[in-house]
Amino acid sequence: MACVMLSAISCKKDDTATLPTASLSATSQTVSESAGTASITVTLPSTQSTDVTIKATLGGTAILNGDYQLSTDTTLTIAAGSTSATLTFEIFDDEVVESDKTIIVSFSSSHASLTNSTATITITDNDTDQSSSGLVSELTWDAGTLVDMDLYLANNVTISDNSVTDYNLLSGSTNNTGFESLLLSNDLDDGEYYVLVYYASGSREVTYTLTGNTVYEDTYNFTADEEGGAYFYGPFTKSGTAYSVGRAANSVLWNVKLVEPHWHKGKIAK
After folding, report:
1. pTM assigned to the model
2. Over the stretch 223-234, which tens digit does the pLDDT of each residue have?
3. Domain extent for 54
């Protein structure tokens, strides 16, 4: 009987095993928008016999797939026999003038305890304000899966039944990733111009914000099936270094939202 009891005790699972302690390579770091990448490494003090998984949850003021994208999965796996895994971000270097932004990462795991569970990456802006050189239009959008949104400047725009039927492209901001900025230069001839937002590629509804100095601002959206379409904003009447919205001779600078922009369905050539 004593032998049987001893055997049962020796086979009992040890529920008091201590979890390994993981540490972060940096809990606070600052990188320029032009840095290209940023990373956080999670490290164990010694190898383990089984995989250790650690979940990363993203927050902060930086926009996922607008200011940055992930180069690795948010679930990190420190493989058995290894001691570390790295969460890597690609930082988008756009030309939009903006305040510093943060990526706040919260880590959690049922396989390890963490000496620190939160890390912050601050992205500093490296762009120059061009508003003294003309009308600057800047395009940003909401977080979500990666999309490609472009900005173009056009003139000789023809509108019929609230849809654009003809136009002449003058310039464009066509980054494959990141936000867009476009200058209607003071050096251009006086006349009427349009700024168009083009949904080049993506598979989701996108809510975007378009601003132009203090002349105009609008928040609008593309539905997923509007990929390949564009919204034309304007006309912006240029007279020297002054810009106004609309055709009326007494039009003034607006700092309120425009009326609904004009729709164009069809590919805009880059």
Report:
1. 0.84
2. 999 999 998 888
3. 20-124
Kindly report, residue by residue over 164-223, the tens digit of the pLDDT: 888 999 999 999 999 999 999 999 999 999 999 999 999 999 999 999 887 788 888 999
Confirm whether 10 is domain-assigned. no
Do 143 and 249 have their domain in common?
yes
Those residues with Cβ within 8 angstroms of residue 34's Cβ, 6 or more apart along the chain or in another chain: 91, 93, 126
Q: Which residue type, as a one-letter code, is found at position 262? A: H
